[in-house]
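YM 10:42: Abasic site processing protein sequence, as discussed on the call
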Amino acid sequence: MCNLYSNTIPAEAMRRLFDVSVERNYLGNAEPLPAIFPKHMGPVVRMAEDGRRELLPLSWGFRTTKKSKKTGSIIQPAAWNNARDDKVRSSGLWKESFERRRCLVPASSFCEAKGRNPATYFWFALKGDEGRPPFAFAGMWQTSRYQGREGPEEVETFTVITTTANEIVKPIHPDRMPVILKPDDYEQWMDGSADEAFGLLRPYNSDDMYVVRSGEGERSDGKA
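YM 10:58: structure's back
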């Protein structure tokens, strides 16, 4: 699972990297985000209704109504921040978004924890000429509608798709890692058919990744 990542990419750099026009950049003077958690806001690149790309902040995790097991009363909604690659075409929570609302989730590193009390946090980044080259997760978005404590609520949300862990992530998290897309695949992910997009859901090459930061209590990648 991926429950924590960072995005320290300047907004203007994101706009250029992901081919978003100036007037479709809705981030404003966005600050670096060295730690993004579920239910927090994160930058997303998606297709607008007119077919043009836009860059805007959405809330991480599809929301669904959640009730207390003890009382049956409505409590804080569940946030589904990860979607398994083997479920995106069959699960009712993911299927429509996979077919119609795929997006790019810009990032500069992601974190996986090992052990408990205390846990050791490992931050993974891509290799490159700069310290943390920007990249994008394969994501999906939706307008989540659910029951809150005060009645019906809705919020625009995104989720990150995960796949089998590669050799560098596996010692820390043996099962899953987020899908990282290569720049040449962005257009196919955003505009391709469901079959074409599904073909991109695979582990990233471990030789092109490294652990950029690790330690107990390191719940930020340290770069702001």
